[in-house]
């Protein structure tokens, strides 16, 4: 049976475990126009997922690596805006789970997100099957909805152009010894620039870890109107670049 890809925003359920956190948008989270950056929002999503697991007493039961995230922006959060983030499990598979997080603000911010996370053994870092520990805590809101791990953004075509080398900063390396997923969202900010409208759908897929020592370049190609597809790819000595991360932005009028 073909499982649905994890691309659907589902509404906050009325029953089951829903975890709510509050965050304020600070100076280090915004760009020159005082709009919250995608990489800062990704950190908030990462933190609220961790806080949910801690609150449920599941800290250390599983490790989690994000595979894919989609952010649908109706209105971007702004500097000093107070945000409410409500997160819940919206689907699962053998070794992965889908998490939706709804973000609203006291100045009108509205962002809906969905991420696919792979469960790993905290010691070996290898994928592990979800068991009763997971389903006892998060199973009710998923309501039996099965999702697959299939990625949605294809490889770069012949029209993809290099935007230059993408630096790997020591500050972005996490305890898994690779570039943290939130830091990679900075590539989306570089692609869109300061003045672009962020309303629409932004997607990032993590194909393979970006590690210290990788020689990475940013490739990009237009995708209809103001949309863009992009890839962080390792330069190969012989052959095409090896895709490590895929990105795509679809403006609101096309989403």
Fold blueprint:
Blueprint: E1 4-5, E2 19-24, H1 38-55, E3 63-75, E4 82-92, E5 96-105, E6 110-120, H2 132-142, E7 147-148, E8 161-165, H3 181-184, H4 186-192, E9 200-206, E10 216-222, E11 228-234, E12 242-251
Parallel strand pairs: 1-7
Antiparallel strand pairs: 2-4, 3-6, 3-9, 4-5, 5-6, 8-10, 9-12, 10-11, 11-12
* Terminus-to-terminus distance: 28 Å
Helix content: 10-25%
Number of helical regions: 4
Quick one: overall form? globular
Characterize the main sheet.
Answer: 10 strands, antiparallel
Compute the CA-based radius of gyration: 18 Å
Mean pLDDT across all residues, rounded? Answer: 92
Low-confidence parts lasting 5 or more residues at pLDDT below 50? none
Arrangement of strands in the largest sheet = 2-4-5-6-3-9-12-11-10-8
Q: What is the H/E string? A: EEHEEEEHEEHHEEEE
What share of the residues does DSSP label as strand, in percent?
35-45%
Structural class determined from secondary elements: alpha+beta
**Count of distinct strands:** 12
What does this structure look like?
With 255 residues, the chain is of the alpha+beta class. It has helices at 38-55, 132-142, 181-184, 186-192, and strands at residues 4-5, 19-24, 63-75, 82-92, 96-105, 110-120, 147-148, 161-165, 200-206, 216-222, 228-234, 242-251. It contains 4 helices and 12 strands. The strands form 2 sheets. The protein has a 10-stranded antiparallel beta sheet. A two-stranded parallel ribbon has the order 1-7. The relative contact order is 0.18. Helices cover 16% and strands 36% of the residues. The two termini are 28 Å apart.
